[in-house]
Amino acid sequence: MTFNTAALLAPAPNAEFERGTVPRRDVAADDVLIDIKFAGICHSDIHQVREEWGSSTFPMVPGHEIAGIVAEVGENVTKFKVGDRVGVGCFVDSCGECEWCEIGEEQHCRKNVGTYNSREHNGDLTYGGYSKQIVVKQDYVLRIPDAIELDVAAPLLCAGITTYSPLRQWGAGPDKRVAVIGMGGLGHMAVKFAHAMGAHVTVISQTRSKEADGRRFGADDYRAMNEPGSLKELRSSFDLIICTVSADMNIDAYLRTLRVGGALVFVGLPENPQSFRVSSVISGRRSLAGSNIGGIRETQEMLDFSAEHGLAADIELIGADEVDAAYDRVVASDVRYRFVIDTATI
Ligand code: NAP
Ligand code: ZN
């Protein structure tokens, strides 16, 4: 059995959002019903609504940066109770028994179910956070610490974990020089986390326009790509580069800024294939890698780390009528630094 919840729907690729309803399943034994309060707008939402990563399923309700309050729990739920402050990120189910689920890296599970534009194991379409309520199994729900307001917590569920995870994986910390390319939603969290982990942090942005913010987020250095020679000066500088750019880029120029043994890690996922010269990784034993969100265990660790260090996203809170315009502003690199929808306006 299902019930309907109010939602913002993308009816077709590139079409404007419309108010409507989508079905949610009735709360089952292991389920948590969440009253969604805030939903962040990730660039991945835009890629999928605009079918930049291949075909999507419509109507689509995007949103995988969800923060809200528990409204009801199923009879087997032990982890949460009504009134708890909770979040949901990029996936809502997985097989629960493969090698990756067993170690809490459910993002690698072949049966991972995306929060939207995906299908439940029974074939039902999933609908995301641009809506008033969602039903999720307790094992895929995160606890938002009291120290973090819900609106600025929402973006941590994707932008937060997607940058925290590779920083941990590649050992960001004291004595490490980390660069962050692109300071949007993901990038601004990467700067905050890398600084809090004790690394020396450089922002590489298209222009100087975000410099004051970058330094406020913890950057020790800030470079603008529109200034000639900016990358040449950075040759052999970094142990780790987190690239959050959502568009085509000159990978070789960035690889040359890595020290011997350094790694360039992609989290940004542009529409087009990218190329690089093999000599750029052979020279200096450099690595080119990627990283995909993070598991439930590490996402909770990231939320607790954020609370401990007083970190959260810098956001622009918007209403449902402003989402189309917000998408265009994100694509124009004109967001400071995450749009978050107040779902009371849906
Ligand atoms: P965003 O807020 O739009 O940030 C991207 C930033 O990249 C922009 O703010 C801009 O920074 C820079 N940029 C944009 N266009 C550029 C261009 N043509 N040349 C150079 N730099 C450019 O997007 P986001 O939400 O942070 O997401 C970033 C990317 O990560 C997207 O592709 C998204 O789909 C992907 N993503 C991946 C994962 C994962 O698990 N791997 C998870 C979430 C998102 P400056 O203004 O500072 O130059
Ligand atoms: Zn995302």
What does the model show?
The protein has 346 residues and is an alpha/beta fold. Helices cover 22% and strands 27% of the residues. It contains ten helices and 17 strands. The longest helix has 13 residues, at 296-308. The chain starts with a strand and ends with a strand. The mean pLDDT is 97. It binds NADP nicotinamide-adenine-dinucleotide phosphate (NAP) and zinc ion.
Task: Name the descriptors.
binds NADP nicotinamide-adenine-dinucleotide phosphate; binds zinc ion; 6-stranded parallel β-sheet; 346 residues; globular; alpha/beta
Number of helices: 10
> Biggest sheet, in brief?
7 strands, mixed
Cα-based radius of gyration, to the nearest Å:
20 Å
Helical coverage, percent range: 10-25%
The overall strand count is 17
Order of helices and strands: EEEHEEEHEEEHHEHEHEEHEHEHEHE
Query: Low-confidence runs (pLDDT<50, min 5 residues)?
Result: none
CA distance, first residue to last residue: 24 Å
Distinct small molecules: NADP nicotinamide-adenine-dinucleotide phosphate, zinc ion
Q: Characterize the quaternary organization of these chains.
A: single chain
Q: What is the beta-strand fraction?
A: 25-35%
Provide the residue-averaged pLDDT: 97
**Backbone shape:** globular
SS-based class? alpha/beta
Task: Give the arrangement of secondary structure elements.
Layout: E1 2-9, E2 18-25, E3 31-40, H1 43-49, E4 66-73, E5 85-88, E6 91-93, H2 99-102, E7 113-114, E8 133-137, E9 142-143, H3 150-153, H4 159-169, E10 177-181, H5 185-196, E11 200-205, H6 211-217, E12 221-224, E13 238-243, H7 251-255, E14 258-266, H8 279-282, E15 287-290, H9 296-308, E16 315-318, H10 323-331, E17 338-342
Parallel strand pairs: 10-11, 10-13, 11-12, 13-14, 14-15, 16-17
Antiparallel strand pairs: 1-2, 3-4, 3-8, 3-17, 4-5, 5-9, 6-7
Helix pairs in contact: 4-5, 4-9
